[in-house]
Amino acid sequence: MPTENLAVNESHSKGAKTVTFDLNPCPESLDSDQSDKKDKKKEEAPPPPTKGVYIFPNGDRYDGEYQHGSDGSLERNGYGVHTTTDGSVYEGEWKGDKMNGRGKLTHPSGALYEGEFVNNQFHGQGKYTWKNNSFYEGQFNENKMEGTGQFTDTEGQMWTGTFRYKAAPGLRFELKMN
């Protein structure tokens, strides 16, 4: 009857510790199994990001960190600046070839969004400034002003409360007296 051996493997990634247990029926397979697993982990780990400039076929320009996908394509990951041919500029964090994390998107019209992005959308805390300098600062959900926030108009008058995309029932006007 074969004896069973218990192997404990520890790995550390970004401050997290992972412990796995392998139950191997025969001791002679223990060493070869561990080396095979180490080789597979090396193959599965994504390569570190590269920094550079890439010009897309449509003329858009990306200057920042990227990785090559398994199919050889460029995937934006890390910090970078993407400038479109129409003049839109995104400067910020990328993950999975999408705007993910903190960033700033400037439109050719002069409108500007600074804040959190999730999968190429305004999502989380942010500030959207229109070209006339009025702005909304607060929560966004899938590109919509949604949640607690504050709108300031071109004359500096402020309304605060809960926003629901294009509706904002029950806003409170903040009167400033000098």
Overview of the molecule:
By secondary structure, this protein is mainly beta. The chain contains 1 helix and 13 strands, in the order E-E-H-E-E-E-E-E-E-E-E-E-E-E. An 11-stranded antiparallel beta sheet has the order 3-4-5-6-7-8-9-10-11-12-13, with no helix packed on it. The protein has a two-stranded antiparallel ribbon with strand order 1-2. A hairpin with a 2-residue loop joins strand 6 and strand 7 (98-106). The longest helix is centred in the N-terminal third of the chain and has 17 residues, at 28-44.
List keywords for this structure.
single chain, eleven-stranded antiparallel beta sheet, two-stranded antiparallel sheet, 1 helix, 56% strand
Provide a short characterization of the protein structure:
The chain has 178 residues and is mainly beta.
Radius of gyration: 25 Å
Count of β-strands: 13
Kindly state the mean pLDDT as a whole number? Answer: 81
Strand content: over 45%
The assigned structural class equals: mainly beta
User: Helix-strand pattern, N to C?
Assistant: EEHEEEEEEEEEEE
Spans with pLDDT under 50 lasting ≥5 residues?
A: 1-32
Biggest sheet descriptor? 11 strands, antiparallel
